[in-house]
Design a protein that fits this description.
This protein is mainly beta. The chain has helices at residues 145-150, 210-213; strands at 3-4, 10-11, 28-31, 37-44, 47-55, 79-86, 93-99, 104-113, 117-124, 128-136, 164-168, 171-175. The two termini are 26 Å apart.
């Protein structure tokens, strides 16, 4: 029995043990083993999530999803690593992986190996397991602003500059504040931060995707 996931993971009877992982960050964009897609992994509200951030063949649809309302949804931006929690004492996260080939969820773990590899292991029915190695194609992603918003982080406030004054013969005379320095001219293009949506990146912060923000699949 073999099961090929959209992410490229192969679940087969024989599986070699994972290489011991170094302390590393699993966030970032990862190229799956068969190079058909990139999966963006980010920490969203305390769990690791992964979503398709690039497809070799654009325009894919989740046609095998058992939910009829999701059969036509794009696979780009679709969650594949679901609510993965860190295991105590090890650099490994466990949760679920979504298999777009049959529309089913399976138990899975992800384990960083060094800084540029991510091992993923999935199991069908708890015992038929297999895995592969993904390769990093983009740097780690800073903590999502969506997490800060969820935690109610206070927003910085700015106060109007106070007028300064000088004293002459016991009388205080107000003086105008010094003029603000001229703003630097804007450039035609800016460099996007890792995981930030822009013209070349249609997915952006995966924590803001409705599917992940709503903790539902």
């Amino acid at each position: 029995m073999r099961l090929a996931l959209y992410t490229g993971l192969i679940l087969a009877g024989g599986f070699t043990g994972l290489t011991p992982a170094l302390a590393a960050d699993p966030t970032g964009d990862w190229r799956v083993a068969d190079a058909v897609a990139n999966i963006r992994v980010a920490q969203c509200n305390g769990s690791m999530w992964g979503a398709v951030s690039w497809e070799k063949q654009p325009g894919g649809r989740d046609e095998y999803n058992p939910d009829a309302s999701k059969k036509t949804r794009p696979t780009l931006g679709m969650a594949t690593l679901i609510d993965m929690k860190k295991k105590p004492g090890v650099d490994q996260w466990e949760g679920q992986v979504y298999n777009a080939k049959d529309g089913q969820l399976y138990s899975a773990t992800i384990t960083p190996v060094g800084t540029d590899q991510l091992e993923i292991k999935g199991c069908v029915m708890g015992f038929l397991c297999g895995g592969e190695t993904w390769t990093r194609v983009a740097p780690p992603i800073p903590l999502s602003t969506a997490n800060a918003m969820a935690k109610g982080a206070p927003k910085p406030t700015s106060a109007a500059p106070k007028a300064q004054g000088t004293t002459t013969s016991g009388t205080t005379v107000a003086t105008a504040p010094a003029p603000a320095p001229a703003a630097a001219p804007k450039t035609a293009a800016t460099t996007a931060k890792p995981g930030q949506k822009n013209a070349a990146d249609l997915v952006g912060d995966i924590c803001l995707l409705p599917e992940i923000a709503g903790f539902a699949h």
